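Changelog-adjacent note: as of this version, every example in the card shows the full chain rather than a window. The one below runs 886 residues end to end.
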Amino acid sequence: MNDSRSRQADALAEALQRDAGGKLTVFLGAAPGVGKTFSMLTRAQEQLRRGVDVVAAGVETHGRNDTAALLDGLPRIAMSTLEYHGHQLQEMDLDAVLARKPALVLVDELAHRNAPGSRHERRWQDVMELLDAGIDVWTTINIQHLESLNDVVMRITGVRVSETVPDAVFDRLHDIVLVDLPPRELIERLQQGKVYVPEQAAQALQAFFSPANLTALRELAMQEAADRVDSSLRETRAARGEGNLPLRRRVVVAIDGGGQSEYLVRVARRIAERRDAPWTVVTVQHRRHDEATRREIDDAFALARRLGGDAELLHGPGIADALLDYAAHNAVSSLVLGRTRERPLARLFNQTLTQQLIQRGAHYEITIISTPQARANARRFGLSLAPDSWGKDAMTAVLATVGACLAAWLGEHWIGLSDLAMVFIVAVVLVAARTRMSAAVLAATLCFLAYNFFFIAPRFTFAISARQGVITVFLFLAAALVAGRLASRLRMQVVALRAANRHANVRQTLGRQLVGATDNAQVAHAGRVALEQALDAPAWVRLGADTSTSGSAAPGDTDLAAADWALRHGQPAGRFTDTLAGAGWWFLPLLDGEAHAIGVAGLRFDHQHPRLAPEQRQLVEAMADDIAQAALRTRLVADLETAHLHNETERLRSALLSSVSHDLRSPLAAMIGSADSLSNYADAMDASDRRALLDTIVVEGERLDRYIQNLLDMTRLGHDGLKLNRDWIGVDELIGSAARRLQRYQPEVRLQLDIPATLAPIWVHPALVEQAVFNVMENAAKFSPAEVPIEVHARQHDGELVIDVIDAGPGIPDDQRARIFDMFYSVERGDRGRQGTGLGLTICQGMIGAHGGRVEALPGHDGRGTLIRMSLPMLQPHPESPRDDG
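Full-length structure tokens:
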């Protein structure tokens, strides 16, 4: 009661805190272009016609005419202008909105990052300030911008969303509007140019806006909206002091293996079918089942799966506790169970399962199914107990009573023990700890009678001479019953915890093995090893063409037929099933999220296992799900790598085409123009003009040769690598050759070389290292001012030759230095500068890296310009060969 009142008070406090400020309404979509802004403006026009003071403070139309038309007539607050690096940026004027203080304000793109210089870094912070000021806010957001889903969206789309909104903002929600559009219609809008311009739309369709991504994001948006509605309902009911209301009408049928399990399964199937609801068959393992009970439960579970239901094995000290706990955590609305046995003692203490469920599960629909067999069982005491099992437990109770009598007699005559009741209570506790509750009750009754007959005066009779004696023996009986019940419940809890702990350890071990699996073969091997260790039986796993076997334990032809059937139909086959039951293996399909089999797992049991225990079946099914999920993960990773490779290939192709169309065409045009002038006007030119044209042809030809060489080097770096033909060369000769080559192409470049004469020669591939140094110098010449020389320093340090090339250009931001060696980054930024393919630094990194060195981009002198540092190890040739061709 106190917990209920506390939850009610907490819910009321949260509701009051949420309603203290303005009300937040979010228009949620799965992706850009679904119509969130259009829907928000349409509803805003309706509010305006009703007389609501609504203004638009930050609405983005993205150039869509139909969206812009909805702004007509809506009062607006002008955007503020901020200057950033010479650019004029428009942002929502937060102070103007607060001063205007409308009843409702429209703020688009909740995840938007504000321009530097704004009061808040993110727009959602502006919205929170508006809400705190008591202003209602309508805003829009896509599902991928929710912070808690960032990793999920990354796994789905391969794109890490940088602009996110904390989930705590959604705690201020007053209403959520899901704006939905089927993926096919959204793709049509993209193709028609209604979302992005054609070039952006084509790229989006190949990446983020694929049908699979849109479908997954749509499901996420629907789930988030449903969760928020469910959460709001729970909070509202909690504030009213009401319990949780299950929204899904799941039907759960409880069976106990008492002779009517399959009948109950069929009845539950008909009930669920009439209600069009999902259904699950459960059994609670609160004690050790005998063979007949396990067989009946196993058959009932198999029948449930064939009829389209689920099957769950629950653990717990009490049946009612386990059922109610499962119902509370799985949104169950209907419980179906058979008629329980009517025991006089249980009825006296109001402890039957039906009565417990009715008392404690008032908000569940409880259906009691009676069968002719159940009515017959009610007329026979103890029919549900197996005779052999009951006989063993009864014999244990009798032997414990005899042992207690002997121990009490010895204690009384040899030790002088007077409180003999404790001896018999210990016997009852021991029986309860090793058997079921019914045996403990029998032991308590026998010990009560033996204690009265042998040790209470007058002895050897059931008569009791003193009133205190009557009270003593009946208190003994009560204590024995309570102790027996507590011991029995404790034993059941220990059994359940051991089973749950074993299952958890097995799945944890399997999870650790699957984490390191990178392909289907490794997943199959890890799954097979884990199944064998957990079930102590030969296992076999197949995922596509990857099969994991255990020595000679491979399925035969009949077994493989059962495996193929399980793979094709997505259902178990082989032993323990009704399909190809003659097979020696039991096969389970490995299902993906859409109930399609992507593989099959098999186990072979010997003849000592005529049936499979429900807990074993549940463990194997759970492990099969884990193996299937790991296989899906590896397949998704492979698909993402393939898609990434395809995208990189396309980007490389675009970069090469850009180089061919622009950088190669420029020198060709100059060469053709000069040659054409010489061909047509050579006679009219003097010698100097002809010489200038010939020099132009030579220079541009060398420039063209250099571009082509860069492209060839890039191809060699990306495929077969570079063949190193090492030789000794002086550092001054190496750098001097690159410097002379650069000044031949660009005579206006000034170089300042600092190469100590004491530097030892280096054993490298001279042409490649010279090309790398030349590329760095040429890159520095593009960005360094003409009047400032480019500095080149060389020195030996810690067994390495360090070459620094320093320019006085604009420099590189700290967070972008590592990316300048990426050819795509260079091409995308367009920093080919004054002629160049943008591949020079990438080639330099590959050439130096082939020698075991490294290239770094560092800030220049006093933080101005850029320092490119090339470090080469000072290696020595093999004593038997002065040259290294590999």
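Structural remarks: Residues 342-350, 378-388, 827-835, 881-886 have pLDDT under 50 and may be disordered.
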